[in-house]
Amino acid sequence: MSEVFYFQEQHWHLLPDRAIFWEEERALILSDLHLGKATHFRKAGIAVPAGITSEDLFRLQQLITRYMPVRIIIVGDMFHSRENNEVQYFRIWRNQFSHISFDLVKGNHDIMPEEVYGQLQISTWPSLTIRGIHFIHEPCEEHNGYQYTFSGHLHPAVIMAGPARQRLRLPCFYFGLHCGILPAFGHFTGSATLDPSPDEPVFVIAGKSIIRTQ
Amino acid sequence: MQQQSRGWEVITGWLADKELKPFRFQEDAWKAYQQGHSGIVNAPTGFGKTFSLFLGALIAWIDAHPKDYQRKQKNGLQLLWVTPLRALAKDLGRAMEEVILELGISWQVGIRSGDTPLAARAAQKKQMPEVLIITPESLHLLLAQKEYPQVFKHLQAVVVDEWHELIGSKRGVMVELALSRLRGLLTQEGRPPLKTWGISATIGNLDEALEVLLGPYHSNGIIIRTNLKKNIQLQSVIPHEMENYPWAGHLGTKMLPQALPIIEDSQTTLIFTNTRSQSEIWYQSLLREEPMLAGALALHHGSIDMELRIWVEEALHNGILKAVVCTASLDLGVDFRPVNSVIQVGSPKGVARLLQRAGRSGHQPGAVSKIFFLPTHALELVEAAALKTAMEEEVIESRMPVLLAYDVLLQYLMTLAVSDGFHAPQIFEEVRQTYCYQHLTEEEWKWILSFLTTGGDALAVYDEFKKLERQGDYYYCKSRMLAMRHRLHIGTIVSDAMLKVKFMSGGYIGVIEEGFISRLQPGDSFTLAGRNLEFVLIKDMTVLVRKSNAKRTIVPSYQGGRIPLSANLGRMLRRKFNEALSRKTKDPELLALQPLFRLQEELSHIPKDDELLIEKIDTKDGYHLFVYPFEGRLVHQVMAALLAYRLSRIQPITFSIAMNDYGFELLSDQPVPLTTENAKTLFSADNLLTELQTSVNATETARRKFRDIAVIAGLIFQGYPGKHKANRHLQSSSSLLFNVFSDYDPQNLLLKQAFNEAFFYEMEEVRLRETLERIARSSIVITHPQKLTPFCFPIKVDSLRDTMTSEKLEDRIRKLIAVNS
User: SS3 sequence, chain A?
Assistant: First the structure.
């Protein structure tokens, strides 16, 4: 179950699959996919399970067929490291959606040579601004002159505590005063705990639901 | 007679010249050694256990070369001496060299550990000394060298020192595996069988210890015991103000003023604490309380820089220290003669450990070892009384050997692969001769091999997994980079993810757990090695700090600091509560506790031997359920998970779980559905195995266990020491790996091992079953105290908690939102 959040005069569909569908732009927004991470580990002799990337891409595929976006905005760390076979897998996967544009706002992990992105039909940007909404990988702490900013990088989570020493830690969408932070889309990613102020909207991802906690 | 051999004459003659007469057990050991036996020598410290085997090896050498035993040089490695502690190696080597020198034998004694300089290693490679003192990790490093069989060409015997310390740990498994390979080598080369000897203090399962050392199929192993006894005195220090003594706590600094007179009256005192953080706090508090101790007080624990520790040990020898605050780091080893009293802060949780620590004072044969027990909270006095009785009745706990440690096996196979490679059928045969892997199945073996060659279930065609290559049955590692990384990695088997701590200006201080540092902000102050430090930044796996002037600092808590109570002590504890209840006790500890017991009786109840006490208490925190089986933390952990699971099937409910050695707590935000009617059923032993599996899978404990496993199995990339650029793209936490394996590869054997380690170690399952059967025969007493009781208080304040829930995640979140808004 997604949650439509009307914010900055736009409709944002927050999806439990850790992505946002931006209604006005018909765009899917994702961050921190870290594609190819498992293979990067496996090439180095660390036997993490194979196939995490293809599962992640399968989820993305389902989102695309469901929301029919015209473009996909990736707020950084699309690929985990240098080129490997999972990048080649992505190339094949990409072919089924050649009509959709992929815009990558580069993050610290996006280190492949520029021509590789070209071959994969991905446009890369240091940052991107659409309808006054700014996209950049690392979150800004202060007002940066744009109407609002979306970032990734942190893989945010929040802790909820209650009586009887109950405690839950969940990945979340966080909307700060100037900057919103997306959860990491990739499954082979950790997370960092945020401590939001009470007036900042936070939506946690609880299995197949999105729940606003504040 | 064989003992009238040349070697026997030389050695006994040499001893007689020094007006020494061998102990009976030493002669027994020499005889057994001469006859080609393997086995274990069991004697208390301070009675020449070392000589029982070292001289035995020398006798055999002289017997083999009666004419030229003195002249023969460069004989290659004859005797491998495995020791768990690097710190022991130096003194041991010195003692051996002395003997060799006096006998005029041309042997060399070498040391091989993580501290051995490169030059010495290179020299050893050219010409191995006849005796090599080595740690289990360094022994595996030898097996990781090209053409390693050359090193062992002349090896006659392996002695494993302090075997009781190794047997219950994965380092013990490393020894088992190395021995299996050495035996295999000797067989392959058609040489006489390897002699394997262990030296062990008394433990409850010495026969089993022998089987672990020699493998379950051995035929010629013997145990040589001595009836020599240490005279040990345990004295509890009873708090002056018993009425006001805290019900809970683990530091015991309130007792510090009562410790000072003991220190003053002794030449040198060792103050044992149970955790490194506690030792830091005691060190600081002692200096604050008694500034005169400055310069004469030192700190010794496993996270302190090696050089500093060696300095402390030397200073202990020389008698220039008045007291040393330490942890298990000083449990073992050579004697420090000036030490004549030992203080134990908090319960040592087992008889064997108490004896070991007491033995650090009065090291000379015949001397009395004095140990003072300082309780950290009131109820610990009961433990002291129980320990005392257990000591008198010689009830000593067993050290359970580790079984089926897949992580260590993976590491070992990688070790063989980076040296000369291995033939799988042969190594499988050898590995199955060990105690640890005697029940390893073909299927598990195949999984292990495929984990190393194809990286597990890799069905994808585009997979690029690289570790081992395979030609038929022959497995080897082609990548030099992987080989180098593995060699660096072997030494890390014992440590958690530890980071080095250094000053900005250079200067190494010690190591610290990554988990602790990750909670700090730059600018925060913490304490390590007795210094106050300000955290600046982490760079290249090193924590950079500067001196701090902060008044308040955080003391790191290290994981694994909690030692569970042994089964024997648990039984003894229940007996002591019975005695206390009968009011006929003469134990000073129990007498001192009478006011506390009266209060417990008044508020709730003191359980008799055939009773199980359950307290239901409501506070502003929620609804508490306290259960007191007195079986020790490990059993309680499993029982708590099981009970929580069974209760959560009655209705959707969430529990926070805490435990200590006396009992456990289930805490919920709704009343707990346990009643007089269903209590017996909830504790029944029916369906135990299946329900246990389900209940423990739902908790966090396995995740915590997985941390070590991931490190040992080589899944955590630790970076290269001294290399400035750590490869960030290869870093991940064990917790993330645990998630990924659980989601994508739930059949992974390493996950299975994590669950096994968490709960299914044979012993604990058996103990749990016994406990449940005992409860079935007991009557269950449920009380509803209006206030927290002396029994429950220490559990309630415990912060290490687990969770069990049967509520839907969405429902839990909605409830949390509701209470927080």
Answer: CCEEEEECCEEEEEECCCEEEECCCCEEEECCCCECHHHHHHHCCCCCCCCHHHHHHHHHHHHHHHHCCCEEEECCCCECCCCCHHHHHHHHHHHCCCCCEEEEECCCCCCCCHHHHHHCCEEEECCEEECCEEECCCCCCCCCCCCEEEECCCCEEEEEEECCCEEEEEEEEEECCCEEECCCCCCCCCCEECCCCCCCCEEEEECCEEEECC
pLDDT, tens digit, 9 for 90 and up, residues B701-755: 778 788 888 888 988 876 555 443 456 677 777 888 998 998 888 889 999 898 8
Distant-in-sequence, close-in-space partners of B671: CB < 8 Å, separation ≥ 6: B623
Say if residue B541's pLDDT is above 70: no
Nearest beta carbon to residue B733 from set A88, A165, A190 = A190
Say what the alpha-carbon torsion angle B431, B432, B437, B439 is, to the nearest 10 degrees.
Answer: 160
B101 touches chain A (CB under 8 A): no
Q: Judge: B744–A49 Cβ closer than 8 Å, yes or no.
A: yes
**Contact flag B464-A42 (C-beta cutoff 8 Å):** yes
- How many CA atoms lie within 13 Å of B644's alpha carbon, on the beta-carbon side? 32
CB-nearest partner of B467 from A45, A84, A214: A45
Work out the angle between the directed axes of helices B86-103 and B306-318 (0-180°, nearest 10): 50
In this predicted structure, what is the pLDDT of residue A73? Answer: 97
**Residue ranges of chain A whose pLDDT lies below 70:** none
Residue listed under structure tokens 């030192």: B298
State residue B45's pLDDT score.
Answer: 65
CA distance B537 to B522: 6
CA A198, chain centre distance (Å): 24
Give this complex's ipTM.
Answer: 0.89
Q: Compare A67 and B337 and report the one with higher pLDDT.
A: A67
**Of B117-131, B345-359, B439-453, B579-593, highest mean pLDDT:** B439-453
Residues of A in contact with B745 (CB under 8 A): 49
B809 interfacial to chain A (CB closer than 8 Å): yes
> Helix/strand/coil (H, E, C) string of B100-143?
HHHHCCCCCEEEECCCCCHHHHHHHHHCCCCEEEECHHHHHHHH
Evaluate whether the domain defined by A3-212 bears CATH number 3.60.21: yes
- B810 to A47: CB separation less than 8 angstroms, yes or no: no
d(Cα B409, Cα B402) in Å, to the nearest integer?
Answer: 12
All domains of chain B in start order, with CATH:
2-225 (3.40.50.300), 231-392 (3.40.50.300), 497-547 (no CATH), 604-705+745-820 (no CATH)
B647 phi/psi in degrees, rounded to 5: -65, -35
Q: Would the CB atoms of A166 and B654 count as touching at under 8 Å?
A: yes
pLDDT in tens, B20-77: 889 899 999 999 999 999 999 998 766 778 889 999 999 999 999 999 999 988 999 9
pLDDT above 50 (res B558): no
Burial of B131 (0-12, 13-18, 19+ CB in 10 A): buried
Query: What does the mean pLDDT of chain B come to?
Result: 85
Contact list, A39 vs chain B (CB under 8 Å): 462-464
User: What global pTM score does this model have?
Assistant: 0.85
**Cβ pair A40:B729 closer than 8 A:** yes
The residue in chain B having the minimum alpha-carbon distance to the alpha carbon of residue A192 is B518
